[in-house]
Amino acid sequence: SHRHAVLHSQEHEERYVPLQHLSDSRASFSIYNSPLSESGVLGFEYGYSVHAPDSMVLWEAQFGDFANVAQVIIDQFISSGLAKWKQSSSLVLLLPHGYEGQGPEHSSARLERYLQLAAEDNWQVVNCSTSAQYFHLLRRQAANLQLHPRPLVVMTPKSLLRNPLSSSHLDDLAQGTFQTVIDDEKARVHAENIQRIVLCTGKISIDLFAQQQKETTPDIAIVRVEQLYPFPEQALKRVIARYSNAREVLWVQEEPRNMGAWSYIAPRLSVLTGEKVNVISRPAHASPATGFWDWYMAEQEHIIADATHIEVSQRGGKYVH
To answer: Beta strands 181-182 and 220-225: pairing type?
Structure first.
């Protein structure tokens, strides 16, 4: 993980950067701590990426919400610089995003904003669910630095860092490529029995798979849309076509209905399936998330239950009715 890229000795105060000691390395690798000024730092990183087009520059927000302070850089430069000035950038934005019970200021990177700004092939918006996907995504970004430079916006839920369901084998890292859509491997074995196709992205998919480990749902396929923009229409169409007996296609998200990917993806799914697609989510809210742990848990459990037809185990506390 890039979070452990620099090792510090507690005994001798020495620093060791493993990526600076690769025997067959072909490029330098540097890490710098920066002031906590999202607007200033992101502006610098954008400028650096423009003037050093052969470098892959990554900027990570401490929490995805903190990108709010740098919104003017995102709106005026990163999302629209190519359209306004033909100015290319391959800047990578890493935005922690996932409903983990940490309250309204530490839950949402405002995925909906980046999707609303997406047009004319101006950038990529991705919500990975495994470490191999993240690895191959960065490899793809590096390969396209000269061929097709575009900013990359990545939702990075913190709780998945140590989640076994989002981990990958070494073979997955050594082989393969980034997949814009990931099918449900278990469901494919008995595709003729699938009645409901659950489409989702990011952390909520891991929550759904965790629930399936507790109780199987043989008539449900959980399909992960890893890349939201550009919209992977053909890849998603091929996956849905495998389940010819499915009676419904649903979009599931943990964000409130007026946030997340729903407003962006709803019309695209309707065109893709030829019918209205329903959504399972939190109700529309002015605030991204609740500040009460038991309320958060009750909402999350209800989303999982509605998507999988498995009864909830968490009823919530005194703040939930």
So the answer is: antiparallel
Domain with residue 108: its CATH number is: 3.40.50.12470
The last residue of one of the domains, among 124, 157, 174, is 174
Could you say which of 174, 208, 231 is where a domain stops?
174
In this prediction the pTM is 0.86
Model pLDDT, residue 321: 38
Interatomic CA distance for residues 76 and 90, integer angstroms: 16
Tens of pLDDT, residues 241-287: 999 999 999 999 999 999 999 999 999 999 999 999 999 999 999 99
Any bridge partners for residue 252, and if so which?
280
Domain of 286?
A: 183-308
As given in the structure block, the two tokens for residue 63 are 């929490």
Q: What pLDDT score does 318 carry?
A: 43
Pairing of β 124-127 and β 227-229: antiparallel
One domain, residues 233 and 130:
no
CATH assignment of the domain containing 233:
3.40.50.11610
Q: How far apart are CA 42 and CA 60, in angstroms?
A: 9
DSSP string over 276-302: --EEEEEPP-SSSS-S-HHHHHHHHHH
250: left (phi over 0), alpha (psi -120 to 50) or beta: beta
